[in-house]
Design a protein that fits this description.
The chain is an all-alpha fold. Helices cover 62% and strands 0% of the residues. α35 packs across α39 and α48 packs antiparallel against α49.
Length: 986
């Protein structure tokens, strides 16, 4: 059986497709022979276009055909009775649907007197068409009966080259005149089974160029998943290649069809290699050709489509089983082509590699073929790839990327080092990289050094999984790095090049990453430091790392880099917890370093009183939105402080038993940090602080529950929402400290100025009103005057809540000191500290007696009292942790817990008793007319006591309320009011 190649030139196909008569006129008769049926029909059949231009074109076509002898035979084919032929074809098709019919059972032809080829030669044109159609329809019926098995049908007519030209003419005319009965895609499938069917199909498509896409789409869609593994797949690929040779402009489209249907990967690769040829006689640039090959192969093996990825990787695995002959497998042809170009870009000797981008593409391609396709390199490939990887790049970003890819390839393919000479060459290359690292960094601001040292760190910790993740990240693929294959490389890195002390000492000298944020990808200095901290290398070699970590924290930005919280965690552990490797511990951040982070805060911490200076306030007003500030360093340091305190408390027993002293941060440091404001910002921008906010909130709830109370958050939210509804739009938007002081000086007689001033404060941004906190809190004692209207008092409460939402700890303590009682001489005693009120919350209730007759101010006091009661409980709990009971102590842990609980319950009981006694009327109150707020005062106190009962169900036993319900947590505020009223308190 003979298989002829396509005889239709691309120029002829293009001219027929575009109806380029001038090009056809300039063509030779031999080149026009395949498309003569089309030209004859074009000249003789009645056209749809009857314009003068087409009339002239038809005359040109007739000139082309004149003098060509075979045209007469084609004209004769057009003169037969196609209507009668159509009827017989329909009957033939019906006959062939019956199972078991033989080739001689035919409606189109009668009994043959001799062979099919001889009959064709002796017959007229009408009978020739019938002979050919009978043969095609019989083969088509056999295909339907034997779908599972591909076979070649022997055909005397089509095996003879002598008659092929005439058979081609007959086939083209028959299909053109009977298009509905002879669907061209069905004819194409039938011709695959016939000798020289591919050659005939090319002729058929050339005479009907509009059908090219339809035919190719059908052939690809019906193709095998792996075309080179079967006879039918190889046959289909051959035919499609001939069709694409005839119409090279469609090669990439046919390749895309292969990918879309996940069929015929061999064809896709063959077409990729063919696209490099120029069919006008000039070869394309090999660089452009190879770039397309690399992009195509990498695109398939790294595709997001799992089906495409599996389909092509299976092709690579199967292609390796064939013998090393480019003619037998398109995969081998592909490898041969890649090696040719690889040799062309390799530098001579130690010269820098010139085409660095192409070299990087080659490394990534072979890594993808190895990692995703399972390709096993030949000896020649391994030798050339090792030469490529260990080349010296130029000092630019592309060169740095090339080195990173080269390191990844060595990790992924360690068997590239097959002997001692190659190992020595790689060691020299790595040492050259170390020597040039600083030059790379100074020249391009980017360096492969971090990856190099990170590999060394992972080798020292024997963490091959992390090396695999590093390689995968660099290559952008899932790299199957095998740990057992890296044993020799591990020895090279850890014993000959990067000793652990060298790596550790180098890490602290690497500059921190400016504006480190979550958008930064790849491996940065923080990756290396994190790994070394995790393995306690800094402690082992007593290398100070605190300054580097502090600089990196201060140089962090939004969104948060995902490794920063983990870095803080291992850093804190390395400060407090000793490891089995070494007793040396890292140094914690100093008090001043912590406070310096908050100097640029919107609170103006340089004053140390949580208020803004006038200049700082103007800057803050210009920025307006708090999101304009980079709060990442402040949040990270806050996380560090909370985690540090939590870790110390959890390990205090070990610390005390080891007679160790650890640093503790005084309350004065924490009191100057706007914890509540930072928590609010982290909550509002959780997408910017992924991985930090949940941990931060957990630590705050554990150690500072009084800053995370749901009641306060709800109250603040409701108050802020109501402000816009209550304040007139005519209210001023700004106010100065002098104007606010004038409004205070007008009290208690001129209250209108105070109302305007307070409404103005409510309209101002929360962070900008902190500068008024000292004057505002100082006037609280004046607000208790009975001559002050209720509207002023209510506005004062709302302003207080707004201030409290920003810096609750400082506002609470200042409020307690502002409302405390004066001694008999009128002088205020020494100011309370945060520690004083935390240890004894009852101090808060030693306020001016008028507070207990002013409901809005009483609500403020009770809010403060609730917070400090929680803080006191945490203080007592932490006190037991800080002073653990050792084995030789006489007191047990349970006894201490019982004493602590008893103290807490006694404290709660005292609070309730004091509040109830404050509700009792005094002798002179009726005369002063102060009983009009009594009912509201009772409701406020009952609500507060209700919260205490819910949190402490044992409180009733201490107060000895007879007849009090046992289900204390379920009691309601009205029930509490009724009980206390029955005892005469209300």
């Amino acid at each position: 059986m003979q298989n002829l190649k396509c005889s239709v030139k691309p120029e002829i196909f293009r001219a027929v497709r575009d109806v380029d008569i001038s090009s056809l006129s300039d063509s030779k008769e031999f080149d026009l022979r395949p498309v003569l049926p089309c030209l004859v029909r074009m000249a003789l059949c009645k056209p749809l276009d009857e314009s003068s231009n087409w009339t002239k074109a038809k005359k040109e076509v007739l000139k082309i055909l004149s003098g060509i002898e075979v045209v007469n035979g084609i004209v004769a084919l057009l003169s037969i009775d196609f209507h009668a032929l159509e009827q017989d074809v329909k009957k033939e098709q019906q006959l062939r649907t019956k199972i078991g019919t033989s080739q001689t059972d035919s409606v189109l032809i009668s009994q043959l007197q001799c062979g099919l080829a001889m009959e064709f030669e002796r017959s007229d044109h009408a009978r020739r068409i019938r002979l050919l159609l009978s043969e095609l329809l019989f083969v088509a019926s056999q295909m339907k009966e034997n779908k599972a098995e591909f076979y070649f049908k022997s055909s005397e007519l089509l095996e003879s080259i002598v008659y092929l030209e005439e058979v081609s003419d007959v086939l083209c005319i028959a299909q053109a005149e009977l298009p509905t009965l002879l669907q061209i895609k069905d004819v194409a499938e039938t011709l695959l089974h016939l000798p020289n069917g591919g050659w005939l199909l090319c002729r058929l498509v050339a005479n009907s160029p509009d059908s090219f896409k339809e035919v190719c789409t059908s052939l690809v869609a019906n193709g095998e998943t792996q075309d080179e593994e079967s006879m039918s797949g190889r046959r289909r690929m051959e035919v499609l290649l001939n069709l694409c040779t005839m119409n090279p402009g469609e090669m990439l489209n046919i390749r895309a069809l292969c990918v879309e249907h996940c069929t015929m990967p061999g064809l896709a690769v063959a077409l990729t290699l063919l696209t490099s040829k120029d069919y006008h006689g000039v070869a394309m640039d090999i660089k452009d050709k190879t770039a397309d090959v690399i992009a195509f192969v990498c695109g398939l093996l790294l595709s997001n489509n799992l089906n495409v990825r599996s389909w092509f990787s299976q092709y690579v695995k199967l292609g390796q089983k064939k013998r090393q002959d480019p003619q037998a497998s398109t995969l081998q042809a592909l490898r041969h082509h890649l090696l040719e170009h690889l040799v062309s870009i390799l530098p001579a000797g130690r010269e820098p590699i010139s085409d660095i981008l192409q070299a990087s593409s080659f490394i990534r391609l072979y890594c993808v073929l190895k990692g995703m396709g399972g390709l096993k390199f030949s000896d020649e490939e391994m030798r050339l790839l090792l030469r490529l990887v260990t080349s010296h790049p130029l000092q630019n970003k592309a060169g740095s990327r090339f080195v990173s890819l080269g390191l990844s390839m060595i990790m992924l393919c360690p068997y590239l080092l097959t002997n001692g000479e190659q190992e020595k060459h790689v060691i020299e290359w790595i040492r050259w990289l170390m020597d040039r690292q600083e030059e790379f960094e100074q020249t391009v601001g980017d360096s492969y050094g971090e990856m190099l040292f990170l590999i060394a760190i992972h080798f020292h910790s024997n963490n091959t999984t992390a090396i695999g993740e590093l390689v995968s990240s660099t290559l952008g693929m899932k790299a199957p790095v095998k740990g057992n294959a890296l044993s020799r490389l591990r020895q090279i890195f850890t014993q000959e090049i990067f000793k652990e002390q060298v790596v550790t000492t180098h890490a602290v000298k690497v500059p921190v990453t400016p504006n480190l944020n979550g958008h930064m990808t790849g491996y940065l200095p923080i990756n290396s430091v994190y790994q070394l901290l995790k393995t306690r290398s800094f402690s082992k070699y007593k290398v100070p790392i605190k300054d580097w970590i502090y600089r990196q924290i201060c140089s962090s930005g939004c969104p948060l880099h995902n490794l920063l919280p983990s870095l803080i965690e291992v850093y804190v552990n390395s400060i407090i917890i000793k490891s089995t490797k070494t007793d040396h511990l890292n140094e914690p951040l100093s008090n001043q370093e912590v406070l310096d982070v908050y100097k640029s805060s919107v609170f103006g911490q340089s004053r140390g009183d949580n208020s803004l200076s006038q200049e700082e306030n103007s800057v803050s007003s210009q920025k307006g939105d708090n999101s304009a500030y980079n709060l990442t360093p402040q949040l990270i340091v806050l996380y560090y402080l909370l985690l540090y305190e939590d870790t110390v408390l959890n390990h205090m027993k070990i610390i005390v038993s080891g007679d160790r002293k650890v640093k503790t941060y005084p309350d004065g440091v924490l009191s100057k940090i706007p914890i509540n404001f930072l928590l609010q910002q982290a909550q509002k921008n959780q997408h910017q602080y992924l991985g930090l906010f949940p941990s931060l909130l957990k630590l705050l709830v554990t150690h500072y529950p009084h800053l995370c109370t749901i009641e306060d958050w709800l109250e603040e939210s409701l108050t802020i929402q109501s402000i816009s509804q209550e304040i007139s739009p005519l209210t001023k938007t700004t106010i100065t400290l002098e104007q606010f002081q004038q409004a205070i000086d007008g009290l208690p007689l001129r209250t209108s100025e105070m109302i305007v001033a307070l409404q103005t404060l409510l309209r101002m941004p929360a962070d900008t009103i902190l500068q008024f906190s000292d004057k505002f809190l100082g006037c609280l004692i004046l607000i208790l005057d009975t001559r002050i209207p209720r509207k002023v008092v209510d506005l004062v409460r709302k302003v207080w809540i707004k201030l409290h939402s920003i810096s609750p700890r400082s506002i609470r303590l200042a409020t307690v000191n502002a409302l405390r009682q004066s001694n008999k001489r009128g002088a205020v005693i020494t100011q309370y500290t945060e520690n004083d009120v935390t240890i004894d919350p009852l101090i808060i209730l030693r306020c001016d007696n008028r507070v207990y007759r002013c409901p809005p101010i009483l609500e403020i006091i009770l809010c403060i009292l609730s917070a400090y009661m929680q803080a006191s409980k945490v203080y007592l709990h932490n006190h037991t942790l800080v002073n653990p009971i050792l084995d030789h102590a006489s007191q047990t842990d349970q006894e201490r817990r019982d004493l602590k609980n008893a103290l807490i319950m006694a404290q709660d009981s005292a609070v309730v008793q004091i509040l109830l006694e404050c509700c009792l009327p005094k002798e002179d109150e009726e005369e002063e007319g102060l009983l009009h707020n009594r009912r509201e005062i009772q409701c406020v106190i009952c609500s507060f006591i209700h919260k205490i009962f819910i949190s402490d169900p044992h409180l009733a036993k201490l107060i000895h309320f007879q007849g009090y319900p046992e289900e204390l947590p379920n009691i309601t505020v009205p029930e509490i009011h009724s009980i206390f009223k029955s005892f005469g308190y209300f």
